[in-house]
Design goal:
This protein has 156 residues and is mostly helical. Helix content is 68%, strand content 0%. Helix 1 packs antiparallel against helix 2 and helix 3 runs antiparallel to helix 4.
Length: 156
């Protein structure tokens, strides 16, 4: 089985656990003399089963990621860490550029020459260029990760 398949299963299992959690919470208490819509104990047991499956999937995925070499980037785990940090760096640089440009702030225009003028403390154009370069690197890294996911066999 290729790595991409259990990754999709992991996503589905995590979503299923969240749905079960919500159903458990809404059926955990009920008024005296009434019957809850669903059996919370049965839902809890079902959630436990899904969580055991999820743990097995995560272990196998992590073992596979750590063992899969991607050349100069290191392992698949290294590439995932790189992509995560690139996304964070992109968010920081974009937020800095937006703040320096005054994006999202209440528009303020001077009425009189004596009023204070707002100045940018950062080079907005340069930051936008950095953000574009980071976005490109994120896309390229993600493409290599996705390719590996479809080419790599899941380890036991």
């Amino acid at each position: 089985m290729k790595l991409a398949e259990p990754l999709a299963e992991r996503s589905d299992a995590a979503r299923r656990v969240e749905q079960l959690r919500a159903r458990i919470v809404s059926n955990a208490r009920h008024q005296e003399g009434e019957t809850p819509a669903e059996d919370a104990a049965r839902l809890l047991a079902e959630a436990d089963e899904v969580l055991r499956t999820l743990e097995t999937l995560i272990r196998r995925i992590n073992r596979t990621n750590a063992a899969t070499e991607l050349g100069a980037e290191g392992t698949l785990t290294d590439a995932l860490a790189r992509r995560d940090v690139l996304r964070l760096r992109h968010a920081v640089v974009t937020a800095a550029a937006d703040a320096a440009a005054g994006t999202g702030q209440t528009s303020y225009s001077r009425q009189l020459r004596s009023e204070l003028m707002m100045l940018s403390a950062l080079p907005v154009a340069e930051l936008r260029g950095q953000a574009d370069a980071l976005a490109r690197e994120i896309r390229e890294t993600d493409t290599r990760i996705q390719r590996a996911n479809w080419e790599t066999e899941l380890l036991e």
